[in-house]
Each structure stands twice: as C-alpha cells, then as structure tokens.
Amino acid sequence: MGHVHVDTHIKGKKGAQLLNEILVDTGATYTMLSPKVVKQIGATKIPPYTLDVELGDGRKVSASVYAASIKIDDREGPAIILTFEGVKQVIGVQTLESLSLKVDTLTGKLEPTRPKGVAYFY
C-alpha cells in the first residue's frame, strides 16, 4: 500500500493554515502537529493540558492537547491535536473518524465511510 499523504487545512482562533503532504498514520490515535503551527492558528488548549503518550518508537513524551478545525478534501470537522517539540506531523484516526474518512488499502487514498456531515454515536 505505501504511505498516504494528504493536504489539509487547519483552523483555529487566529486563522487557518494549509499543510501539504501530511502523513496519514492509522497507527496514531490523534493528529500531531508542530507547536509552531498550533500557535500560529490559535488552536484551543483543552484539559488536561498535557497527556503522556508513547510514540511508535517506544519513547514516552508529554504532549500538550489542543482542539482545532481540520479540513481534508471537502470534509471539515473537529480534531484533537497533540503537540510537543520534535513532533512528526501526522493525521491520526480520531481525525479520520471525525471526517468520516478511511484509507483505501488498494488505492492508498482516503475514501468516505458515510455521507458528509453525518455522525453516528453509540
């Protein structure tokens, strides 16, 4: 399948920013963005403010937790964003779920899982 990269718009209280070729990481729960991007857009800091997370390489870091609006293709919704110095920017599965998207393993592209704007809660 290879790697899947997408262009995404991220928006906070101070404005929006286009991020090109961000890796979609189906092994990551949350979207991870650099502290610089989070600050520039004015993402909203949310409790518990920091979260201890284990990275894919086994390192443990303390990440700040934010919320912002994210748009991929024609779908826009909320995203929980974690940030820390040296972070590798990725789109996580929580964001994909929020936007009703999944990775098509045959094409290596994102595809809808349900109609745009429809969310199901159990």
Describe the model:
With 122 residues, the protein is mainly beta. The protein has a single domain (5-112), classed as Acid Proteases (Cathepsin D, subunit A, domain 1). It contains two helices and nine strands. The protein has helices spanning 35-41, 93-98; strands at 5-11, 16-24, 31-32, 44-54, 60-72, 75-83, 90-91, 101-104, 109-112. Strands 1, 2, 3, 4, 5, 6 and 7 form a seven-stranded mixed β-sheet that branches. A hairpin with a 4-residue loop joins strand 8 and strand 9. 25% of the residues are buried. The model has no long low-confidence stretch (mean pLDDT 92).
Task: Set down the secondary structure blueprint.
Layout: E1 5-11, E2 16-24, E3 31-32, H1 35-41, E4 44-54, E5 60-72, E6 75-83, E7 90-91, H2 93-98, E8 101-104, E9 109-112
Parallel strand pairs: 2-7, 3-6
Antiparallel strand pairs: 1-2, 1-5, 4-5, 5-6, 8-9
Number of helices: 2
- The CATH topology is given as Cathepsin D, subunit A, domain 1
Give the integer mean of the pLDDT values: 92
What is the radius of gyration? 14 Å
Strand pairing plus helix content: what structural class? mainly beta
The N- to C-terminal Cα distance equals 31 Å
Name the CATH homologous superfamily: Acid Proteases
Which CATH top level class fits? Answer: Mainly Beta
Global shape: globular
Q: List low-pLDDT spans.
A: none
Percent of residues in helical segments? 10-25%
In percent terms, what proportion of residues is strand? over 45%
Number of domains: 1
The CATH architecture can be named as Beta Barrel
Largest sheet: 7 strands, mixed
What is the β-strand count?
9
Q: Give the H and E element order.
A: EEEHEEEEHEE
